[in-house]
Amino acid sequence: MKNLLVLSLGAVLLAPAALPQDAQKPQDAQKVTIPFRNPSQPKKLVVDTMRGSVTVRGYEGQEAIVETSSRNPGREPRRAAEVPAGMHRIGSSTAGVDITEDNNTVKVSGGFFGGPADLVIQVPVQTSVSVKTMTGSAVTIENISGEIEANNMNGQVNITNVSGSVVAHSMNGKVVVSLNSVMPDKAMSFSTMNGDVDVTLPADIKANVKMKTDHGDMFTDFDIKVDSTGQPPRVEDNRGRGGRYRVRFDRGTTGSINGGGPEIQFTTFNGNILIHKK
Amino acid sequence: MLVNTKDNAVMAEVSAGQVARLALLFERHHRALFRYFVSMHGDREQAEDLVQEVFVRMLRYRTSYDPAQSFTAWMYQIARNSAVDHVRKRGAVRVVDIDTFAERRAELVSASPGPEESASHGQNLALLRRAMDQLPEDKREILVLSRFQGMKHEDIAEVLGCEVGTVKVRIYRAIRALEQIYFALEKEKVS
Amino acid sequence: MTCEQARLQMLGETEGQDLAAHMASCEACRNELSRIGAMWQSLDLLPLEEPAGQVRQRFYEMLGAYRQGLSSAEPRKTYRWWQLAAAAALLAIGLGIGYGMRGNGQVPAEVSQLREEVASMRQLVALSLMQQQSASERLRGVSWAYQAEPSDREVLEALLTAVNHDTNVNVRLAAVDALRRFSASPETRRAVVEALPSQTTPLVQVALIDLLVDFKEREAAGALKTLAANRDVNDGVRQQARWALEKLQ
Fold this sequence. Notes:
Number of strands of chain A: 23
Number of strands of chain B: 0
Largest interface: A-C, 55 and 57 residues
Largest sheet of chain A: 21 strands, mixed
Distance between the termini of chain B: 66 Å
Shape of chain B: elongated
Radius of gyration of chain B: 19 Å
Order of helices and strands of chain B: HHHHHHHHH
Number of domains of chain B: 3
CATH superfamily of the largest domain in chain B: RNA polymerase sigma factor, region 2, helix turn helix motif
Distance between the termini of chain A: 46 Å
Structural class of chain A: mainly beta
Helix content of chain A: under 10%
Shape of chain A: elongated
Strand content of chain B: under 5%
Structural class of chain B: mainly alpha
Helix content of chain B: over 70%
CATH class of the largest domain in chain B: Mainly Alpha
Oligomer: heterotrimer
CATH architecture of the largest domain in chain B: Orthogonal Bundle
Radius of gyration of chain A: 22 Å
């Protein structure tokens, strides 16, 4: 038996355009598989939804798998409009999520009509991911290696077990990020108006940091060399009393970690900044 | 500041004298160019040299750029010419023992995540890489351009100086050749 | 469709309505597809190579030298070896071997003539990066902009564009901060005051307000009052505006 990586005919072996999309029956009305035009080239996932939570997970495959669950399945479906060329519609019309693939970028957008659509999307681990949601709940991104951008209007942003670079923002919600490793030479930024910025970085990261919170405190267990223009940090060592070792900085502070490197910004208005060493 | 940032528009500006704009094209394309050279010749250092050479030539020949032409096609034409000249100058492609190279690639490949098939999966990819390297250069190139660089057939036709129809045939022949080499290598391993 | 045609279609990019039909009826082609298709597919699994950092530096050095050659009406200057070395070192420091050069670095007098060269290089890097698709690259561009000469109008323009139009909140935030470099110019200050009413993201509004306070920009009072009184504006921002008004008295 040939020890080849055999793939079934059902999967798309050809360049996507070769098989008309209608010929590929989705296994389940709520779940669709979308191939990238050229998986050996850099891939991107872009998500833009109005409502509903968004979860993106890296997995050991080559395609994007989108699952949606509408929270209001009982709603009357809107008239089934004609599907524009090159697009899928998945889920009931209430979910109204549209998916397109263009030049190695899979775009998922929707939740504009009907109830919120909770999206769970799986993509190859090595994919760049950009998620934007308006009145969604949480944005969760896990197990991805690539450039990650997340923007949530109302809700938490949780980005964990990732490597690469992260730029994340929430209007109202915590921003929790944990990076296993970082791409060299990449700048990053984490910000929220109301909530903590809680970031874990590899211990050997080289970076210049800029931290600002208007009404909160900043804590870290990294050794941050503060720029001379700023105030020296205050050290609170409560370890003897079973507490933690904290270094507290002034409102707006710049400094460097491990000799300096690309810039990482931490910004919050009402909340604390926590920078953990991995 | 609404600027048309399509490749050929930017290159047209460079051609007209706004030389600095080349930096934009550099940021966009140097990684893909690097991958092209590495896929073709396996040598990272040489690939870096060649990337530099491509941009030097883009500057030198900027006035001859025709904005009606696909920028990608023009860039890869320059890339190919640079590689050929580089080889000519150095006397031969830097000789990298094919087996050592394949081993190094195998390490690279088995270290990265892959589908959860058998444990010998890493080996399969190493074999695949070896098969690629043993392909005649023109066949390897067409696979690199179509599969790795994701170039459109029209652009490939322009780069290679052939008909669009020929491109399809060549891709097909290249992948068949790859398949044959792969299976030959596999048999070798087993025996 | 003949088998011949089908095989050509298999790996192509053309629409294959007939292909599906042919496949359904032709076992030979199905097998063929399965075999070469698998090979085609597995090519994807080879990992992507990434270039090392040197590539960038070399490019920018070359470009700079080329521009220099273009702009100098005089015959090409021949620099002494230590001048070239120092310039290369300055560039290297800027381009990635050591960051954290905010403001003026130590420039030996002998290479001050090359400083213009380095400054123009920084401008180049900043402007190119700020036009990239990825937010992370644009962020880098902004941090490069922070190292530009305070008199550099092109960079200032690019930063103001970023503050007002960049699609990413974090980039806008970073751009506001980078404007500190240009605080001396009245044009900057005016632009920051003007940016305030059109910005709707609370964090960026706060950043602009903080900047105006740091600039000690009394001209901002009018805009701040309007902001503080506007009920549609985020409470935190209104609070900040009130605080700023006090500080600017």
